[in-house]
Amino acid sequence: MRILLDVMGGDHHPEELVKGGIAIGKHRKIDIVFAGDPQLIDSALKKYGQTAGHSFHILPCSEVIQMDDSPVRAVREKGDSSIIRGLQELSAGNVDAFVSPGNTGAVVAGSLFTLGRIKGIPRPGIMTALPTLSGQDTFLIDVGATSDCHAEHLVHFAQMGITYAREVVGIAAPTVGLLNIGGEQGKGNRLITRAYELLKATDLRFIGNVEAHQIINDRPADVVVADGFVGNICLKTIEGSVSAVTGILKKSIRESVVTQLGALLMKRAFGDLRSAVSYQKRGGAPLLGVNGIVVIAHGRSDAEAIGSAVDVARREVEANLADKLARLVPQADHHGS
User: From the CB of residue 47, how many other CB atoms can be counted at a distance below 10 Å?
Assistant: First the structure.
């Protein structure tokens, strides 16, 4: 198995991402192709006792798509960037998957331009894993690939999310819910009420509407679907809330000796909390609906997080997810485009 890792995107220096790629490559015994500045990559490989060759390879790229670049313009004008070159390698069959912590919009636009959509799936969706009180993740799709959706697109997201949950995660009979402002049927705008009707008419295990607070508290469904605009707001709100609660807790602990002593006694519990909400351990977010395995890592990904993202890609490849998503075509066509 050969996975291509874009090391020029995100907040960290390429050296940190190369470090993560080396670690996961050695642990999982997979080949890693590092896309980016060849001198920086070669220097990082040598720092960690590796050389380009048998297991680790370099795809030289002379351009970088910045996080604030216009996605469509960058895809058109930066053809020698690590994102575009990496996706071209995937399209050509030279690698099995592509992982990037870079500009999300550019990864989505580049994937659509280079790989194309799965036939019968008119819009892609980004899916992310969210921690829950049950200890088992819930998967939210879409969190930013397609902001303006038709109701039929939400059905496609549900089909793809359920396929991922079953084939990659191993959930035998995944359930799906629809993110909404209330639990009762008939709640929501025209998009949501129509999507509810369509989902209810499928043979999917549709459990109905899901409110945002239920996702991480009650975990009513394995997969929750939303349009990319609402889904992204939901994701960012959850991330911000977790960060705020953690910050408040740290501030409170520092205020007195008593709370500091109490914190020492609860060190293990705090460690469990940190592990449960850590994006480093959740891996990357699969881009579903394009012809190839593409995983978008968090922009703040360090070595551990990038290794987790590569491992998500590995699991997708091993599950033959791309082919299994392509088999959704008859169902997808039935619900239109």
Answer: 12
Give kind and range of the element (H or E) at residue 178.
Answer: strand 175-179
Domains annotated on the chain, with CATH: 1-121+289-326 (3.40.718.10), 125-280 (3.40.718.10)
User: Residue 134's CB: how many other CB atoms inside 10 A?
Assistant: 11
Enumerate the β-bridge partners of residue 35.
6, 59
- In three-state secondary structure terms, 20 is helix
* SS3 (DSSP) at 300: coil
CA quadruple 254, 281, 125, 178: dihedral positive or negative? Answer: negative
pLDDT tens string 127-159: 999 988 888 899 999 999 999 999 999 999 999
**Closest by Cα among 6, 9, 20 to 283:** 20
Q: What is the three-class DSSP state of 222? A: coil
The alpha carbon dihedral of 143, 148, 151, 152 has a sign of negative
